[in-house]
TrEMBL record:
GO terms for molecular function: hydrolase activity, acting on acid anhydrides, in phosphorus-containing anhydrides; nucleic acid binding; zinc ion binding. The keyword Flavoprotein does not apply. Keywords: Hydrolase, Metal-binding. Residues 34-132 form the HIRAN domain. InterPro entries: HIRAN. This is HIRAN domain-containing protein. It comes from the Bacteria. The keyword Hydrolase applies.
Length: 132
């Protein structure tokens, strides 16, 4: 092996090492979404959902807010898009999510599907998840 080959292999090896470190660093920066449930927004017709339905798009991030003082459901979770209250997480799917939120887990929601033809009960389907 002469000097030219030595430096060529050394350069290629260092380049590969730098690429490996960079790609490994990007993999650590990516977050994994853990889906908890995929319910419809409950009570869409009773709140601001009807007024803002034309502003809603698939993949919009929704804000979830715990409402432990709710008289009808102590595990109630409100669903907002901006300042507009769209409704609630359905009662049959909110207990685990509410307990996670009470423990400080940052639970998020995203619109998965908007069906304009469907009744108000099944108009907005969302995905509830947290990131790790």
């Amino acid at each position: 092996m002469n000097r030219t080959h030595f430096f060529k292999y050394l350069f290629l090896g260092l380049t590969g090492l730098m690429f490996f470190r960079k790609s490994r660093g990007n993999a650590q920066d990516k977050r994994c979404e853990i889906r908890l449930c995929s319910p419809f927004v409950a009570g869409f017709q009773y709140y601001d959902g009807f007024d803002v339905r034309h502003l809603l798009c698939t993949d919009d991030l929704l804000f979830l807010k715990r409402e432990p003082a709710n008289a009808r459901d102590c595990y109630a979770i409100e669903v907002f898009q901006g300042e507009a209250k769209l409704g609630y997480l359905p009662r049959d799917e909110n207990k685990v999510v509410a307990r996670m939120m009470d423990q400080g887990v940052k639970v998020k929601a995203r619109i998965v599907d908007i069906d304009q033809e469907e009744s108000y009960y099944h108009k907005i389907k969302m995905k509830v998840f947290y990131e790790i």
